[in-house]
Amino acid sequence: MIALETTNLEKTYAVGFWRKKPRVALRPLNLTVAEGEVFGFLGPNGAGKTTTLKLLMGLVFPTGGTARILGKDINDPAIKAQIGFLPEQPYFYDYLTAKELLEYYARLSGMEPKERGRKVEAMLARVGLKDAARVQLRKFSKGMLQRVGLAQAVLHDPKVVFLDEPMSGLDPMGRREVRDLMEELKQQGKTVFFSTHILSDAEALCDRVAVIHQGELRGVGHVAELTSSVAAKVELIWNGSAVPAGLSALGAECRVIGETIRAVLPEAQQEAALEILRRERLRLISLIPVRSSLEQYYLQKVSPEARPAVGAR
Amino acid sequence: MNRVTHIAANTFREAIRDRVLYNLIAFAVLLSGAAIFVGQVSINIERLVVVNLGLTAVSLFGVVIAIFIGIGLVSKEMEKRTLYTVLSRPVRRWEFIVGKFFGLTGTLVVNTFCMAIGVFAALLYVSHKFQSSDAWILVALFFIVLQFLILCSLALLFSSFSSPLLSAVFAFSLFVIGSFAEDLRGFAGMSHGLTRWLATSAAYLVPNFSALNVIGQVAHEQPIATRLIAYNTAYALAYSAMAICGAVLIFERRNLK
Question: Which of B54, B89, B254 is nearest to A111 (CA)?
Answer without folding.
Answer: B89
